[in-house]
Amino acid sequence: MRLLFQQRLFSWFDSYDIYDEEGRTVYTVEGKLSWGHRLEIYGPAGDHLGTVKEEVLTFLPRFSIYVEGRYLGCIRKEFTIFKPRFQLECNGWQVDGDFWEWDYQVTDPAGRTVMTASKELFHWTDTYTLDIPRAEDSLLCLMIVLAIDAAKCDRG
Hints:
The chain has 156 residues and is mostly beta strands.
């Protein structure tokens, strides 16, 4: 499954549209007024699917993940020198980025690829392509990319 993650050009808070390969809207993400980033994810019919909420007053970026109103776990940035790394505490997935912080790979504890995400250059807004082998992982993978993008936004 391939998803195109594109930030809206004119939005007061972080807002994104997520499309499939045929250009259909699969998810809509709306930023909400909050202390730290708070992103609400909706399905194509407008049903609320999940929330990514930044935990404030932490040394390194950390985001709580909620699916259908229940706490699933968190994604936290690890201290690294050259390449960014995030750990998903709910299922042990690991997120490794490249030196430029444009490409990311998510692997499960067995080392299998769960997702690759690439930031596309030369766009007016943040745009990512997500390649996800298993469609059932798409919501959680989207939440990971939202958290990474919010962490990068906080740094300026």
